[in-house]
Amino acid sequence: MAKVYTFANQKGGVGKTTSVVNISAFLAAQGCSALVVDVDPQANATSSLGLEEHLAESLKSGDEATVYHALIEGAPVSQIIQTTRRPRLHLVPSSPALAGAEVELVGMLARETLLRKALAPVLRHYDYVMIDTPPSLGLLTVNALTAADGGVIIPVQCEYLALEGLGQLLRTVNLVRDSLNPRLTIAGVVLTMYDTRTRLSQEVADEVRRYFPKQVFKTVIPRNVRLSEAPSFGETILTYSPGSAGALAYGALTDELLGRQV
Amino acid sequence: MAKVYTFANQKGGVGKTTSVVNISAFLAAQGCSALVVDVDPQANATSSLGLEEHLAESLKSGDEATVYHALIEGAPVSQIIQTTRRPRLHLVPSSPALAGAEVELVGMLARETLLRKALAPVLRHYDYVMIDTPPSLGLLTVNALTAADGGVIIPVQCEYLALEGLGQLLRTVNLVRDSLNPRLTIAGVVLTMYDTRTRLSQEVADEVRRYFPKQVFKTVIPRNVRLSEAPSFGETILTYSPGSAGALAYGALTDELLGRQV
Ligand SMILES: Nc1ncnc2c1ncn2[C@@H]1O[C@H](COP(=O)(O)OP(=O)(O)OP(=O)(O)O)[C@@H](O)[C@H]1O
Ligand SMILES: Nc1ncnc2c1ncn2[C@@H]1O[C@H](COP(=O)(O)OP(=O)(O)OP(=O)(O)O)[C@@H](O)[C@H]1O
Ligand SMILES: [Mg+2]
Ligand SMILES: [Mg+2]
Asked: Which of A41, B82, B106, B123 could lock A98 by a disulfide, CB 3.0 to 4.6 Å apart?
């Protein structure tokens, strides 16, 4: 039975997609089977995993089924899952059409539980399900939190403005735990884009460790340009630049996550 | 009569808030009167302008009026406007409560025009109104686009993933122009966080200039740590580090924007 993790933080550009894609790649490389679920209308996880160009085109035009069809039309996820270039790493793709789902979900029955129900039939085929979310705390992210029995992983960029929204994020996590998913815990907090050259990174990291005393991963992800180059080739860091500081950090983070499993 | 600019891009962390706050500071320093309108529930523009601590606390708890009250309860914006430490620079603050507005707006009459109507009575008191938006294309951003008679300014981070969503953003701008605000133009595209050390920045910049042949500002904002430090002191770059590369770039960008006025 798969462990389902959701990566969430409403602050934009903090490394949610980069973490989902690269941790999943390391899990698959170690022999685990991983399913990435892209619940962001920007579909960055979908393109980062290099879905072939022609498929990417048809996703945009609406011919291929995406997570939108699973949520709004009840299409079976097993028919939406795509394989990627890497063995044991599968993807439920997204597309810009998902942007309309936030409003469409508002009037649907049990709207917060639709993703959880859609994923249930495929959990037994995977060791891990990793859900990427948009930078907001709307119904798409709430769906992802409701599905996350393994817990939520919170990437926090080592920047001052990234500290601001953590209180709101925790309130939302608590609300979802109380009324929708009693098993929702904070599986971990990942410090990202740490820049050793600036004092600011250290100050923010210290502040985050005070705020989440037990949950911050020891592994800190440094700012590393290889991580931002990899998606333009549709590759993960593991195949694009395996010896880079970014690859070493995500490798160590994956090991640390595996070590936290109960 | 004020020129109203909205800064929008659904990709997260691309420099929307940093651009609104710092361009507004340069406009005020040059003798113009500027009103920053924070339409993001993260309220990063509000905290970047150093709203006194006690005020920031009460904003979070809900005692003080914010843009939420103007949109959802019809409170007059003139009663919500706050002054900041800098002369001629005023603020309509936001707070986390605004996150609920996305859903509340769905059922309201003429919901996309509520911000435009709320701002109308105060336009004659300012030379510029600069609207910051959340990283999404939902009703809050649509409200901001509907209000933006001066046009939309699109910050684009010089990263591959930031290219992905531009098509969707343009479709939304065209939709708003066709059905809500015929005066909505693209006032400009700002390249941000340009890193001279990486090839990626140059490639992305070239791609953006191909995509928006006439609208990309000549001034490129470099990646500069002073810009990310300033908000932690509640200061703009102009007072925090006036000689930094970030300050020089935003000063030049402001001059370029003024030069484009018709
Ligand atoms: N450690 C890192 N070092 C350098 N660049 C990084 C790092 N992590 C992510 N990036 C780059 O920074 C940008 C933001 O990261 P990413 O898109 O993963 O964040 P996100 O939280 O998913 O953003 P959004 O809120 O828009 O969904 C991307 O261009 C990415 O390639
Ligand atoms: N040119 C720059 N150089 C270095 N850091 C920058 C620059 N511009 C912005 N930053 C920092 O990068 C982060 C993202 O910028 P900012 O918050 O302005 O983006 P945004 O688009 O408003 O994000 P969101 O989508 O969450 O609203 C912030 O921590 C900010 O301080
Ligand atoms: Mg993302
Ligand atoms: Mg912002």
From this structure: A41
